[in-house]
Design a protein that fits this description.
By secondary structure, the protein is of the alpha/beta class. The chain contains 23 helices and 32 strands.
């Protein structure tokens, strides 16, 4: 029987999910989860929820679906130990390091691979299954036939999203938010760059739109087919959504799941009627309905993208025209209307606003969504207080931080709200478990044996995407050339010219083949056949960027694998996981920082296994479709006037920064510290001889490339906990100084 799995971003959503018949819920705590901006659960609330949900015969899963830096691994270990003691039914994970820790210390914890782990094939699912993972949450960029094929060819349980927001980028591969300021999607800090308003240069004229904001997923019509295919769990997205939303969507899918066998058409019609109260973005079934993969790649973009669709959700209510602080009466009314301590605590953050320009005036109990006019933030909010002043002007409560000109949308009205039986026990005082002071045992990485990495020489590596660029890159005199396997290069790898000469200007020993990080089930058979031919033709070294690649290559004799930048290694435990797959060499993720890299690989011996990018145009979005025909532009800008470029191919589409990431001025210092495998990455970028000469001159003179980005190299990931601690310390110091000044003797 297929499980219905609903989000519980807060206590009210938990009540709604259980009240409407969810078989299981998933939630996050205050750290290590991919929705750090949702309310999340306190320790005692979580422990109480586990006990209560289990008493109801339901299941509860915890999201631990972010990557962790080396400095965080001890805290991660303590968190896993805490979860092991409390006993949820499973944890949803992204970081290979979490799997490795659980293998070593917490084998009782049931592991579910997050969609952020980028699993879209039975080959990847099977590798994880052998590592103790019970369930995989497959990528959302898959069709019905691919889902059926995965289920038929793996012993892992299959969980899939059936409703909610989509990412425009392939799951787990988005770097855009991280590039904009260290707020990594892989760290639960996504700022939703895909929802932003952009200005495009279309042949000299400027056009504007929400070019990368996808519709929301809705697969309610496909529920019967997916149940018959044997999918183990239907997942509803929405830990940032209101309880009303969670309740309505859960009710709709519950109804169809329970009634389709008796009346398929009627059950789906009723499910859609229930969903009609969802005032969110327009809906799509995305990758369903395409007969072939090339058809999907050609047409899926037009199916989910609409540049005229606002990046927001809901019915437009207007803009904020005035704001003021809440008065005592309004604050009192707000406190009386709140149900949880968290909401009551938020009363100090409430201000009042006038909304003008729409046809509906929100009432208490309605859910709204506010969008900053500069596109820097969005917040959902339930209206608690409405007051009318002496001039008959209507004010509603809104969170602080919003001001005149910000847009407001209606998500749901109070009429759609229900009261649900409380799941949590009324008294939480007996739930006192918290992560303890355990010390994480030291992990030593496996030293490479003598000559084990002789195929991985020190020096400069250059990566390109086309054969023409491979010829141009000879000017760098690389020790190895890395060439992407794609629709264009595949022919050149496997064929010769009329004089029987290879079409590439390098010996096969010199060539490393880089595999695309997204490999869907529908393409796996062809890739397997291609890899067989490449190995037979004498190619031995591959950059693997997906767990499926490891599964396909591991049995081939004399093949060498480099773990690519999309097999994320932000800590030693993740490196150890890959070591257990017999992979000793790796390329560090491009969003990594210098500090974390040094901490992960402490000595020269360990650093001799790492290929470090010093120049790249990183793919910020990777999309499994060609962009719609009307997307005729190459360059576009955001509101801060940062420039980006887009490339649409028959393999998919990519968004990259116009200016490169570069630390080429640091090369000598890096070499002195043991980083002696350095990569110049020209993927998806034309290599021009004149540019090569300029770049070589800049390298020799230790110069910075004008306008280039350091990405996260210097500042690292944005860390909200450190920011909060810094602000709290500042406030404390300011208060102490004020007290000293106030009480200073005359």
């Amino acid at each position: 029987m297929t499980e219905l799995l609903a989000p519980a971003g807060n206590i009210e959503a938990l009540d709604a999910a259980i009240g409407e018949g969810a078989d299981a819920v998933y939630l996050g705590l205050k750290s290590f989860n991919a929705r750090l901006r949702s309310s999340n659960f306190a320790w005692n609330q979580f422990e109480g929820a586990v006990q209560s949900v289990h008493k109801l015969g339901k299941k509860i899963y915890v999201t631990v679906n972010t990557v962790s830096e080396e400095s965080e691994t001890e805290r991660l270990y303590r968190f896993l130990s805490y979860l092991n003691n409390v006993g949820p039914d499973g944890i949803i994970v992204q970081d290979f390091g979490v799997i490795r820790m659980c293998q070593e210390f917490f084998p009782k914890l049931e592991l579910h691979a997050s969609t952020q782990m980028n699993v879209e094939s039975a080959a990847a699912a099977n590798l994880l299954c052998r590592q103790g993972v019970k369930r995989v949450v497959v990528a959302r960029e898959l069709g019905l036939d691919e889902i059926k094929s995965i289920k038929a060819n793996t012993n892992a349980e299959l969980e899939m999203f059936v409703h909610g927001a989509l990412c425009v980028s392939e799951s787990g591969l988005c770097l855009f938010s991280s590039y904009l300021g260290g707020k990594s999607a892989n760290r639960g800090m996504c700022t939703q760059a895909c929802r932003r308003f952009y200005t495009a240069d279309n042949g000299g004229s400027e056009e504007q739109g929400y070019y990368f904001s996808p519709c929301d997923l809705q697969l309610i019509e496909h529920v019967p087919d997916l149940m018959q295919a044997g999918v183990d769990s239907f997942k509803i997205e929405g830990r940032m959504k209101s309880a009303e939303y969670v309740g309505a969507v859960t009710a709709a899918y519950r109804y169809v799941m329970d009634h389709w066998e008796n009346d398929r058409k009627g059950a789906i019609a009723e499910g859609k009627r229930i969903l009609s109260t969802d005032f969110a973005r327009s809906k799509t079934d995305y990758w369903y309905g395409f007969k072939t993969i090339p058809e999907g790649i050609a047409d899926a973009g037009a199916k989910i993208l609409n540049p005229k669709q606002a990046g927001g959700t809901g019915i437009y209510l207007g803009r904020i025209s005035s704001v003021r602080s809440a008065n005592e009466s309004e604050r009192s009314d707000f406190l009386a209307a709140t149900k949880t301590s968290a909401e009551s605590d938020a009363s100090s953050e409430i201000q009042m606003a006038v909304i003008s320009g729409g046809d509906y005036e929100p009432d208490p109990g309605d859910s709204i969504r506010l969008h900053k006019s500069d596109d820097t933030g969005r917040v959902s909010h339930k209206v608690r207080v409405v007051s009318v002043d002496e001039k008959n002007i209507r004010w509603i409560d809104v969170p602080k931080g919003f001001s005149r000109g910000d847009s407001v949308y209606l998500l749901q009205t109070k009429a759609m709200s229900k009261r649900y039986k409380r799941v949590l026990p009324p008294d939480l005082s007996r739930f006192r478990r918290q992560p303890g002071p355990e010390r994480l045992p030291v992990l030593d990485l496996t030293p490479s044996e003598k000559n084990e990495l002789r195929w991985f020489p020190e020096g400069t590596y250059v990566q390109v995407s086309t054969t023409a660029d491979a010829y141009a890159a000879q000017g760098f005199k690389p020790v190895r050339i890395i060439i992407e396997l794609n629709s264009e290069t595949e022919y050149d790898f496997l064929n010769k010219d009329k004089s029987d000469k290879p079409l590439l200007p390098y010996s096969k020993k010199m060539v490393i083949i880089s595999l695309d990080p997204f490999i869907a089930e529908g393409s796996i058979a062809r890739l397997s056949e291609t890899l067989d031919k490449l190995v037979q033709n004498g190619y031995q070294t591959f950059v693997v960027n997906n767990l499926a690649h490891i599964n396909l290559l591991k049995t081939k004799k004399d093949v060498h694998m480099i773990a690519g930048p999309y097999l994320y290694t932000f800590n030693r435990w993740a490196v150890s996981f890959l070591e257990n797959q017999n992979i000793m060499a790796l390329q560090t993720p491009v969003e990594n920082s210098e500090k974390n890299l040094d901490a992960t690989f402490e000595n020269m011996s360990e650093r001799s296994r790492v290929l470090l990018s010093v120049f790249a145009y990183p793919a910020l979005f990777r999309m499994r479709f060609s962009l719609p025909a009307e997307y005729e532009f190459t360059y576009f800008n955001d509101k801060e006037n940062m420039s980006f470029k887009v490339l649409s191919t028959k393999d998919g589409s990519y968004v990259m920064p116009e200016a490169p990431f570069s630390i080429i001025d640091k090369i000598d210092a890096l070499k002195n510290r043991g980083w002696k495998h350095l990569l110049l990455d020209f993927s998806r970028t034309k290599v021009v001889k004149g540019d090569i000469r300029k770049l070589m001159m800049l390298i020799q003179s230790h110069s910075v490339i004008p306008g280039s980005s350091r990405f996260n190299w210097k500042d690292g990931f944005y860390d909200p906990e450190k920011i909060e601690a810094y602000q709290a310390a500042g406030a404390k110091n300011a208060g102490a100084k004020g007290a000293v000044k106030k009480h200073r003797p005359k």
